[in-house]
Amino acid sequence: MINYTNVKAVIFDLDGVLVDTAVYHYQAWRRLADSLGYSFSVEDNEQLKGVSRVGSLELILKWAGLEKSEQEKEQLLAQKNQWYLSLIEQLHPGHLLPGSLDLLQRLKTKGMRIALGSASKNALGILQKTEILNYFDALIDGNVVQASKPDPEVFLKGAEALGIEPAHCLVLEDAQAGIDAAKAARMQVVGIGSAENLKRADDVVGDLTALVDKF
Asked: Which reaction does it catalyse (predicted)?
């Protein structure tokens, strides 16, 4: 069980927690995989949750049995990101997942420190388009971390940026790699989704609505 009275900061993952851009990532990765002659499945996409852009490409190339030069990989990553960015142009506040805005508002009124801890390199644009950027005291994304989840770097940097000890940080995550990263950082973590898919989480809820009254 989580001791919410001990929480001084909350670190949010982005995709699947605050806003669902996963479908756009899936569409862009599938289009890229198709161009490589590989049939990219929903199950494949599940394995990319919480993994960096570079790490995701490496997995797809591995599944497809392909080897590419570093220059070719850069070109493929740029192409995937171009397709993804064109898809998320349509994002607006109405795309926020249930409870997202209510929880951010509650945390702010309670004086909680708030950070984003995401592998996304497009996090800033997504937060701007959904009009929630002003709620965050720190933004730790794929542009400032080297290691992908389940490495705890993103969450440890979030705690450092907020000036809060890891033991007083609560992570909100929808991917197993993120749960593992939070535990490695010695933080409490709430899984967003299904308990059977989120092992080791201290608690699991369907969406952020369930957490609003905890603070």
From this structure: beta-D-glucose 1-phosphate = beta-D-glucose 6-phosphate
* DSSP annotation of 99: T
Helix 22-35 to helix 53-64 angle, to the nearest 10 degrees?
A: 40
Q: Is 13 a catalytic residue?
A: yes
Query: CB–CB of 32/80 below 8 Å?
Result: yes
Assigned CATH topology for domain 4-19+93-211: Rossmann fold (3.40.50)
Q: What is the mean pLDDT of the chain?
A: 94
Catalytic residue among 15, 44, 141, 180: 15
Residues facing 172 on adjacent strands: 12, 190
129 is in an annotated binding site: no
Percent of the chain whose predicted confidence (pLDDT) is above 70 = 100
* 15 in a known ligand binding site: yes
Annotated binding-site residue? 66: no
Identity of the amino acid at 129: K
Q: Is 10 annotated as contributing to ligand binding?
A: no
Binned at pLDDT 50, 70 and 90, residue 195 comes out as confident
- 148 and 50 Cβ atoms separated by less than 8 Å: yes
Lowest model confidence (mean pLDDT) among 42-51, 86-95, 185-194: 42-51
Catalytic, out of 13, 44, 141, 180: 13
Does the annotation place 119 within a ligand binding site?
yes
Ordered by start, the domain boundaries in the chain are 4-19+93-211, 22-89
